[in-house]
Amino acid sequence: MTTLGLIGAGHLGSQVARLAVRNGYRVVVSNSRGPETLTGLVAELGDNARAATPKEAACAGDIVIVSIPLTALSSLPVDELVGKIVIDTNNYYPQRDGHMEALDNETSTVSELLQAHLPESRVVKAFNHVVAADLTADNRDAGSPERRALIVAGHDPSAREVVASLIDVFGFDALDIGPLEEGWRIQRDTPGYGASLDLFGLRNALAEAIRYRDM
User: Fold this and answer.
1) By CB count within 10 A, which of 24, 87, 185, 187 is most buried?
2) How far is CA 30 from CA 16, 25, 56, in A?
3) Residue from 73, 62, 61, 70 nearest 30 by CA
4) Region 98-105: what's the mean pLDDT?
């Protein structure tokens, strides 16, 4: 049984955990406040879930999902994530995160910053452009004409394939958009961000995206 480690168990992280246990995965959830604050979520998730520290979740996860404030990226464990697929769900909001020069001038993206912090991990961008509640409301069986699409981006093609398969199991079509730097096409304020789109619609939205500096 595949184990998903979750570092961050807020709105999005907890929704990913719910989808995971519903689809036969084991989950280890963590946050910055300690395992004792996650007893309610773990009780809801059932026998295939347990609470842990971020380091423990990183060690336990075959795949690790990161859903934390950008200001906390430097606190992520590094050694425990070597060689692992790390899914980055994060977005940049200057009013929340404070201004970050590399993101303001668009010389980097959120996921590239995470990859720089985790140089020996395989970072994949996913789940960043969907409202948390939609993860358990919009999922559909494969082949459904109403099936929503979600992107994957990452430098490692095999890691993108693994995360695309996870997205499919969760009830969404996956659209591979290539390396991490392409993630700017689905950042906040772009046409695809937050929109419920099928594969065709999401491709069009990505093509219509423009840089912040050009808005």
Assistant:
1) 87
2) 13, 16, 8
3) 61
4) 93
Beta bridge partners of 4: 27, 63
Whole-number pLDDT of residue 212: 86
Supply 209's token pair: 């995206």
Q: Is 151 helix (H, G, I), strand (E, B) or coil?
A: strand
Q: Are strands 26-30 and 3-7 parallel, antiparallel or unpaired?
A: parallel
Q: Which two tokens stand for residue 4?
A: 């998903």
Mean pLDDT of 88-97: 95
Average pLDDT over residues 37-58: 97
DSSP β-bridge partners for residue 27 = 4, 49
Residue type (1 letter), 129? H
The residues, ordered by sequence, that sit 6+ positions from 44 with a Cβ below 8 Å of its Cβ are: 18
What distance in Å separates the CA atoms of residue 111 and residue 98, rounded to the nearest whole number?
A: 17
Cβ-based burial of 164 (10 A; exposed 0-12, middle 13-18, buried ≥19) = buried
Give the closest residue to 171 by CA, choosing from 8, 68, 18, 1. 18
For 138, which DSSP code? S
Is residue 80 within a helix (H) or strand (E), and if so which, with residue range? Answer: none
Kindly report the average pLDDT of the chain as a whole number.
96
What is the token pair recorded at 191? 């046409």
Residues facing residue 197 across a β-bridge: none
For the segment 70-96, the average pLDDT, to the nearest whole number, is 95
Q: Shortest CA distance to 126 belongs to which of 81, 181, 68, 87?
A: 87
Measured between alpha carbons, how far is residue 206 from residues 7, 59, 67, 211 in Å?
A: 28, 35, 23, 11
